[in-house]
Write a structure and sequence with these properties.
Order of helices and strands: EEEHEEEEHEEEE
Largest sheet: 11 strands, mixed
Helix content: 10-25%
Radius of gyration: 16 Å
Number of helices: 2
Strand content: 35-45%
């Protein structure tokens, strides 16, 4: 806090993990799209939106939201997921579209669009989405324990995440973001 106002808040999120990498999904009107499936407090279908022609900028919000709902529908009908400790959780709610990875302020970073029900873009980069993406980046060898990741929304609001430690959830490797 500074001058009676909150400047920042730090939380430890739930263990976050990858359910599967490079899952093919058939999207109506687009064909096959490859998504990473990960949990960061919610289950996400995560795609590199630049591979679909998006720049992940505010002017694309409507199109990203429409695509995100198609992605969620495809993920729910075609692949599903499993959480080792929450077996009754059986549906995706959110899609997470990422922009290119870059270095911003000394951190690995990307601009992201999180599509929430019923088809809106979250104004924030979403902590659960960033946590799921950090688990994917860890699984792909792009982040390690102690590394940070700067998630940026379409309007440049930011979350700075860090892999505090490594753990397991059931048989799945996980990170503590």
């Amino acid at each position: 806090c500074r001058d009676g106002k909150c400047v920042s808040v730090e939380i430890e999120n739930v263990p976050s993990f990858v359910d599967r990498l490079d899952a093919p999904l058939e999207i109506e009107g687009l064909g096959t799209v490859v998504a990473d499936i990960a949990y960061g407090g919610m289950f996400y279908a995560i795609v590199d939106a630049t591979k679909l022609g998006f720049r992940v900028i505010a002017d694309e919000a409507r199109d990203l939201a429409l695509f995100g709902r198609k992605l969620v529908a495809a993920a729910n009908s075609q692949i599903g997921f499993s959480h080792p400790l929450l077996p009754d959780w059986t549906h995706f709610s959110f899609a997470f579209m990422t922009g290119p990875l870059e270095t911003v302020d000394g951190h690995l970073s990307s601009r992201n669009a999180c599509v929430i029900n019923p088809g809106k873009i979250d104004r924030s980069p979403t902590g659960t989405g960033c946590s799921a993406l950090m688990a994917v980046l860890h699984a792909k060898g792009l982040l390690k324990e102690g590394d940070s990741y700067l998630g940026r929304s379409l309007i440049e609001s930011r979350f700075l995440g860090r892999i505090e430690s490594l753990t397991r959830i059931g048989d799945k490797p996980a990170i503590i973001p």
